[in-house]
Amino acid sequence: ALEKLVKGSMRALPQLGQARACERASLALHAVRASVNSAACTDKIALSTKFNVKNVDSDMRSTRAVCRDFENSEIAYGQLTEWQLLHSFAVVYIAQIPLISRHGPKVYSVARTIPVMRTIADYLVRNLFFAHFVGGEDLLSTQRRLAQIDMTDSGTVARQTYRVIPIFDYAAESTDTGGNTSKLTEKRFDLTAQTLIKTIVHAASQRTRDVEQNSARACYACVKISGLGRFALLEKLGRVLECEKSLRIEKARSLLIAEEQSELDRIIQRLNNICEAARTYDVPLLIDAEHLQIQGAIDTLAASMFRFNTSDTVTVFATVQMYLKSGAERFEALLAHARHAGVKSGIKLVRGAYLNHERTQAMRLGLACPVHDSIDDTHRSFDRSVQRAIELVRDGQLAVVIATHNADSIAKAVAAMEIAKLSPNHTDIVFAQLLGMADCLTRSLAMAGFHSAKYVPFGPLYDAMPYLMRRLEENTDILGGCRRDLVLLKSELKRRTLLAVSLQQR
């Protein structure tokens, strides 16, 4: 019915000429079909937008303008020195080599067991992958990396007007899947919590300034629950919660032994202190998703921290991995929990970072694979959830962080925002990418006026190794996106070479 309506409108515009009318019809139909497909995926998306031919045409032109900048190498890397550009090219080129991405982490692990090789391996990793994908060993060292992606260009975009928002993440997480707690591990968990609180204080001091709106926006902080408690306990808690199909932690706690209950209470207290600091300093806090083995516990703890949100503002964000077949269900469960509590939801949407692990784990245990069967299914799941999220933002029920390196998904999200009549600088929608990847997407969005963020992990080399290994071993989809970065880096090198030759000839 909507298609017939738009086609009828096209026939009523003969003064535009056949070519122009066809262009308008194509753009309008594209918008209509995208919305209809989204509605078919979930009965909770209301198609309340009345399509106006003129407005749709204007909106699609704006979307095309943003997407064109995604291929602009000068926007992505124009701020880098020649040395930085060559270093980035070398790292990205090495990262996308299949042999390196598949076997590099294993070779590094073996090399670290040999004293002489350990020094060489650490040197190479520190000066290549660590220097590119990690902000630094401490918060102060992250400032140099952030300066490389800030909007410092001359022209209409000024640093104080549009600046990429940092999401500071202390790269500490548990890799121990068993064992009992001890004073040593508890001390390490307490130290991680203290570091995260310091991170929040630092994030509050690095507020981004929006001159046009005469307002300041705090940077974000990030926390991994596995850095605050024992993996085996979180796994046991997650199994109980998955069976109960509930985000209520009280009943699950009652099924633990007394020692485990005390341990869980300490985890909750650490997380509570971190969330309290985030609310005090007005710093949005993202609770990261992790392995599916402990994701049930993480979702429940994140939902319990929604109490730090209000009906108008969001302090705590949960994360939903849309490569999981249960992703949409988890999304709705978190939304329902926030509605029941009478607060606004905060959700970060990602595709997921543990693809190989989840498939291997399911195969080892003889279980059905929990992730989607194809990458196209994952794309559809992510895009549908983004559509749903934007509808909820329009209704004032949600704040969302759209974390993706997929240019098509970003284009669809931008189009959905325009159709929903949401301004690019809407405070409840933030786009985010990882440090060292997809700089063109980050900077193009910032230049277009969207809230654009970079996930900035930091910490000692040893603590950051799980994160670095995932960049090589787990994120095959993201490393596929590195090919786009590689093309843009080549383009920028070529542009500068031709420019230098031209100047010399003059």
Give a written overview of the molecule.
There is one protein chain. The chain starts with a helix and ends with a helix. The strands form two sheets. The chain has an eight-stranded parallel β-barrel, surrounded by five helices. A two-stranded antiparallel ribbon has the order 2-3. It has 20 helices and ten strands. With 506 residues, the protein is of the alpha/beta class. It has helices at 2-11, 18-41, 53-69, 73-77, 82-95, 98-111, 115-133, 142-149, 183-205, 231-244, 249-254, 258-281, 292-304, 327-341, 355-365, 375-394, 407-419, 439-447, 461-473, 476-505, and strands spanning 165-170, 208-210, 215-217, 220-223, 285-287, 316-321, 345-350, 398-403, 429-434, 451-458. The chain is 60% helix and 10% strand.
Protein traits:
10 strands; alpha/beta; 60% helix
Topology of this protein?
Blueprint: H1 2-11, H2 18-41, H3 53-69, H4 73-77, H5 82-95, H6 98-111, H7 115-133, H8 142-149, E1 165-170, H9 183-205, E2 208-210, E3 215-217, E4 220-223, H10 231-244, H11 249-254, H12 258-281, E5 285-287, H13 292-304, E6 316-321, H14 327-341, E7 345-350, H15 355-365, H16 375-394, E8 398-403, H17 407-419, E9 429-434, H18 439-447, E10 451-458, H19 461-473, H20 476-505
Parallel strand pairs: 1-4, 1-10, 4-5, 5-6, 6-7, 7-8, 8-9, 9-10
Antiparallel strand pairs: 2-3
